[in-house]
């Protein structure tokens, strides 16, 4: 299996540091080659991801809304009434692939290079009539909900009719997005199908799984898991006979037929243009499954990138998925998410130092922390409850530190800030809001810093060396030295409400430095310092082209790599 996760090396005083390769946990976390400094060689690490719940983004094709679908169990809109006229929705709202494609330039212009969308799989055509009914602000109940989100697949090989159009298949969509400069990240599921039991009457689609030829291969038959009979009923063989998540079917990952069904479906979607996978509920499926899946995928697509959702704030737990023996799958950085919320929801009352440990630049449990996908909220948790300045500071951090930034749709305008899933988190964004977004201060600041990252290899894949993270200010380097790029970036952040002057002499290199947002230039003499004043809620990225020549900086990089 070819999957080159990391290639890192350095030269100190002209002598190759041979110790670096032997002291990093005896694992292939780094491959030492002369004059080479890079956090990761994973190609996808250069991307920035915009995350879309497709049905809730933009209705690009009203003809695929199917507003009368479901009969006695309708699927259109289905509002949950909250206090003071507030609403959340558990039915379809009309968003589709054409709605994303129509806004490809909007997404690209902000500085994003990839779009992660919720699953395209076919979901049931009825609202679920089992379980307890969901209410405004409620959780862990599926009664009255639909599969608008895509995670209740009845056929893992078929696109849902609400998402595609007569003139836009999934393959068409990915090809046109790629032509627009955007990669496509597909959301995949392995541990569950639809809600499958407790129904008043057994509705079509629920508890059922169909193959690529639309043949029924599994049916829960509205039975609780403990009443399934996989030994005697072939339609029960896809399922475990014990529950996992709410009333969802619990797919039997130990069954070779199930593994083939799922893994072949992943390969199918790659053939339809998927450039990467986000894996739903990865920790609910054993490592052995993901090792087999990743081996089979990367045998055909060596650099294919995958990142999983393990909803756990303990780094040592989620890091297990990143190890090669467990499939070498990256993960969403939940420990960083928790730290970012604590800092940026109240930036004037918080300390940048609270973010430092979550970086895990040394003594970290991850196979490679530079491959982690970083975020501050998503569709499964409350949106960050920040002011405009809080969002701006969060984005300034997200797009300059190690990792691959992921931003949830609407965050560029502070959409439904502070709301949980059934309290507005997934409400419909719509074209009108996007058209107005270019005038929003969050969107404008995001566009500035995201495009700096987009054009700066050091911010995408460079080693991070911290200078100081304290109070309202942070200063750190990102360093890359490869055949293609030789850059040192110095990032200065100020989340305070007054201007802050930085005087940086630690690790500073002589030469010409250019600030990437303003174009301002400074020439630093040998032994000098870089002095700059950063405005409130501001960021500066000073860039020096050329190889690293500061021996103290090289020694610090050597120190970090030997302990990474």
Automatic annotation (TrEMBL):
The keyword Nuclease does not apply. It comes from the Bacteria. One of its GO terms (biological process) is carbohydrate metabolic process. InterPro entries: GH (IPR017853), GH13_cat_dom (IPR006047), Glyco_hydro_b (IPR013780). CDD domains: AmyAc_bac_CMD_like_2. SMART domains: Aamy. PANTHER family: ALPHA-AMYLASE 1, ALPHA-AMYLASE FAMILY MEMBER. This is Cyclomaltodextrin glucanotransferase. It comes from Alteromonas mediterranea 615.
């Amino acid at each position: 299996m070819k999957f080159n996760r990391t290639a890192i090396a350095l030269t100190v005083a002209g002598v190759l540091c041979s110790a670096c390769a032997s002291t990093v946990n005896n694992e292939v976390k780094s491959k030492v080659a002369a004059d080479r400094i890079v956090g990761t060689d994973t190609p996808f690490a250069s991307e920035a991801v915009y995350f879309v719940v497709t049905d809730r983004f933009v209705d690009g094709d009203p003809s695929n809304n199917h507003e009368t679908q479901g009969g006695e169990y309708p699927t259109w809109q289905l509002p949950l009434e909250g206090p003071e006229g507030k609403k959340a929705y558990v039915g379809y709202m009309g968003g589709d692939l054409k709605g994303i494609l129509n806004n490809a330039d909007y997404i690209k212009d902000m500085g994003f290079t990839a779009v992660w969308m919720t699953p395209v799989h076919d979901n049931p055509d009825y609202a679920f009539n089992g379980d307890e009914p969901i209410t405004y602000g409620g959780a862990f109940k599926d009664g009255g909900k639909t599969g608008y989100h895509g995670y209740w697949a009845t056929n893992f090989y078929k696109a849902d009719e609400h998402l595609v159009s007569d003139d836009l298949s999934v393959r068409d969509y990915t090809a046109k997005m790629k032509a627009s400069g955007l990669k496509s990240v597909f959301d995949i599921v392995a541990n569950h199908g639809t809600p499958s039991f407790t129904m008043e009457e057994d509705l079509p689609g629920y508890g059922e799984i169909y193959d690529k030829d639309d043949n029924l291969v599994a049916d829960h038959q509205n039975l609780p898991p403990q009443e399934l009979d996989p030994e005697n009923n072939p339609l029960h063989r896809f399922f475990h006979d014990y529950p996992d998540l709410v009333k969802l079917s619990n797919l039997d990952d130990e069954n070779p037929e199930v593994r083939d069904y799922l893994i072949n479906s992943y390969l199918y979607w790659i053939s339809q243009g998927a450039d990467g996978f986000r894996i739903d509920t990865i920790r609910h499926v054993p490592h052995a499954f993901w090792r087999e899946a990743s081996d089979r995928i990367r045998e055909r697509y060596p650099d294919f990138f995958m990142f999983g959702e393990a909803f756990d704030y303990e780094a040592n737990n989620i890091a297990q998925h990143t190890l090669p023996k467990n499939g070498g799958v990256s993960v969403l950085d939940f420990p960083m998410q928790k730290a970012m919320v604590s800092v940026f929801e109240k930036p004037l009352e918080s300390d940048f130092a609270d973010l430092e440990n979550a970086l895990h630049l040394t003594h970290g449990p991850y196979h490679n922390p530079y491959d982690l996908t970083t975020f501050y909220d998503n569709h499964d948790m409350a949106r960050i409850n920040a002011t405009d300045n809080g969002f701006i500071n969060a984005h300034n951090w997200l797009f300059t530190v190690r990792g691959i930034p992921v931003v949830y749709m609407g965050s560029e305008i502070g959409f439904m800030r502070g709301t949980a899933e059934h309290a507005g988190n997934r409400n419909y964004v719509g074209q009108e809001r996007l058209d107005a977004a270019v005038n929003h201060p969050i969107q404008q600041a995001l566009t500035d810093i995201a495009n700096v990252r987009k054009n700066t290899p050091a911010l995408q894949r460079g080693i991070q060396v911290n200078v100081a993270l304290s109070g309202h200010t942070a200063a750190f380097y990102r360093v890359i030295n490869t055949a293609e790029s030789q850059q040192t970036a110095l990032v200065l952040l100020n989340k305070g409400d007054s201007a802050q002057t930085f005087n940086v002499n630690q690790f500073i290199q002589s030469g010409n430095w250019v600030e990437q947002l303003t174009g301002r230039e400074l020439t630093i003499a040998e032994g000098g310092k870089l002095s700059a004043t950063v405005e409130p809620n501001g960021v500066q990225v000073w860039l020096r082209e050329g190889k690293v020549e500061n021996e103290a900086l090289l020694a610090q990089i050597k120190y970090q790599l030997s302990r990474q």
